[in-house]
Amino acid sequence: MTRVIKFGVIGCGLMGREFASTAARWLHLNGTKARPEIVAACDLNPELTGWFSDNVPSVTQVTDDYTALLANDAVEAIYCAVPHNLHAKMYTDILAAGKHLFGEKPFGIDAEANATIQAAIDAHPELLVRCSSEMPFFPGAQKVIDFVHAGHIGEVIEVEAAFLHASDLNPDKPINWKRMVEVNGAYGCMGDLGMHVLHVPLRLGWKPESVSAILVNRFPTRLNDAGERVPCETWDNATITGHVADANGGFPLVLKTWRIAPGHSNTWSLRVLGTKGSAAFSTGNPRQWRYMHYHGGAQAWQVEDLGFQTLFPAITGGIFEFGFPDAMQQMWAAYLDELVGGDANGFLCVTPAEAADHHAILTAALAAGTKHSVEPVAYR
Ligand SMILES: NC(=O)c1ccc[n+]([C@@H]2O[C@H](COP(=O)([O-])OP(=O)(O)OC[C@H]3O[C@@H](n4cnc5c(N)ncnc54)[C@H](O)[C@@H]3O)[C@@H](O)[C@H]2O)c1
Q: What's the CA gap between 232 and 235, in Å, rounded?
């Protein structure tokens, strides 16, 4: 029988409502062991909590005080999707209240905040804590991961993982909290997008021992709500090159977290090049992944059209399209499965250890980018 896990949502903005949609159409998935039911919603903005009251019939508590939600005994697990400067305080309070946590990246505004969260996680081994990162659940991304696991790569020549946005190319786009150092963090675009590009490399064991980084702030001012130009100090684009050691001298891990990538809208991509085989996927072309086997002779990429071939089975026919809301639902299915003792069908959401490793890499990249140096990565 399907277990129902009662959830509270703290932060009912862009991502909080995305989870509400995921939970509302759980019938899309076939044969899951557990399903989420949202019973409580918290946000400072009454319009957003009102949206939950209007659209999510299972919600019985609406509040602007997250400690009131934490005191709700009916709530077993919490999705917390708030600005980065609130992660450390809220995540640790959630764990102290004995609730399972699905947190958002970057899992603390900086390495120090992440260490505070990690200490709270260590103190509560009975609680399941995972971090959001949905793009690797695209079927094409899973194909690349399976290709690597199957040993088709040989020696790695290079790995490139990118997350590309373009809307900040408009110099008149108003500033929001994601462009403010005190709320988003000094990492800038790396804090916003770094977990997305590091989830798969870290999962595959590709941990750089040192990094260099080129950081770009193309528009140092932006418009505020009053139409005035104010400083915009967050990094727009980061290109990080890490050195991953292996038995034969190692290889580059190239990470691109770009807010200004002309022509791109939420494009996540992964490309692995190797001596025996190569594989690539981009959400820019969401049906297809590419691969090449090389044993001497022709070097020819093969392109395979994929349909709805997902980690967690769904009612959608295999020939149909997969998209962003589906990736969100697959990610949530992985977390719910683990909550009731499953193995997430073999692909876990980001673990706290991976979140900590990602902070170590971004902290080194921030130092390398500002000092124009090569910095060692100090893993926890
Ligand atoms: N996984 C992804 O693809 C993805 C995409 C976007 C954002 N995110 C992450 O999700 C988190 C939230 O981002 P968002 O885009 O949803 O932001 P958002 O601004 O749309 O939503 C954040 C919400 O938090 C609320 N909030 C602020 N302070 C609060 C408090 N003290 N108590 C209760 N609510 C409070 C705000 O009112 C707002 O509604 C961030 O960590 C961000 O990095 C993840």
A: 9
The alpha carbon of 334 and the centre of ligand 1 are apart by a number of angstroms equal to: 21
How many angstroms separate the alpha carbon of residue 358 from the centre of ligand 1? 20
- For residue range 284-337, list pLDDT tens digits in order: 999 999 999 999 999 999 999 999 999 999 999 999 999 999 999 999 999 999
For the domain made up of 135-371, the CATH class stated in words is alpha beta
Q: Is any ligand 1 atom within 6 A of the Cβ of residue 66?
A: yes
For residue 107, which phi and psi values (nearest 5 degrees)?
A: 65, 55
So what's the architecture of 3-131 in CATH?
A: 3-Layer(aba) Sandwich (3.40)
Q: How far is the C-alpha of 373 from the C-alpha of 215, rounded, in Å? A: 12
- What lies within 8 Å, CB to CB, of 170 at 6+ separation is none
Residue whose tokens read 């373009």: 166
Rounded Cα distance, 135 and 157, in Å = 23
- 147 touches 321 (CB < 8 A): no
| 195 alpha carbon – ligand 1 mean position (Å) | 16
* Gap between the Cα atoms of 32 and 257, Å rounded: 34
Do the beta carbons of residue 2 and residue 32 sit within 8 Å?
Answer: yes
146: its two tokens:
């399976």
Count CB-CB contacts under 10 A for residue 123. 11
By three-state DSSP, how is residue 130 classified? strand
Output the CA 83–ligand 1 centroid distance in Å. 5
d(CA 24, CA 4): 13
pLDDT tens for each residue of 134-146: 999 999 999 999 9
Domain residue ranges in the chain: 3-131, 135-371
Q: Which atom of ligand 1 is nearest to the CA of 87?
A: 41
**Any atom of ligand 1 within 6 Å of the Cβ of 183:** no
